[in-house]
Design brief:
- The protein is mostly helical.
- Among the domains are: 31 residues, no CATH class; 36 residues, no CATH class.
- It is built from 3 helices and no strands.
- The protein starts with 30 loop residues before the first helix and ends with a helix.
- It comes from Methylobacterium aerolatum.
């Protein structure tokens, strides 16, 4: 008997002649299919990106923030968000100075 011939192994605990066990998965042809059926995709960590431009966090003194808020109050509805207000103020300033077209 070949060591890989599983069809000729008797069932454990049964003394009757002619009772055979199922072939072991170790020697089965389905072993290649078994590892392909399980997919392991790693989850991405952190919050997903919300925009296409990189985030720039800034610190500003209270009086500068108050001036930005005052500028926002002077705008027509819908009022821009604080971030949009800072972008608009900065782009207007850079256009006046000739750094931005």
């Amino acid at each position: 008997m070949d060591s890989h011939d599983c069809d000729a192994l008797p069932v454990r605990g049964q003394g009757r002649e002619g009772s055979y066990s199922f072939p072991s998965a170790r020697f089965s042809d389905t072993q290649e299919i078994m590892w392909m059926s399980i997919t392991d995709t790693q989850k991405k960590r952190g919050r997903p990106a919300t925009g296409v431009t990189p985030h720039q966090g800034i610190r500003m003194p209270a009086e500068l923030l108050a001036a930005v808020e005052e500028w926002r109050d002077d705008q027509v509805e819908p009022k821009p968000s604080r971030a949009e207000a800072i972008r608009q103020i900065l782009s207007e300033h850079l256009k006046v100075k000739g750094y931005l077209k």
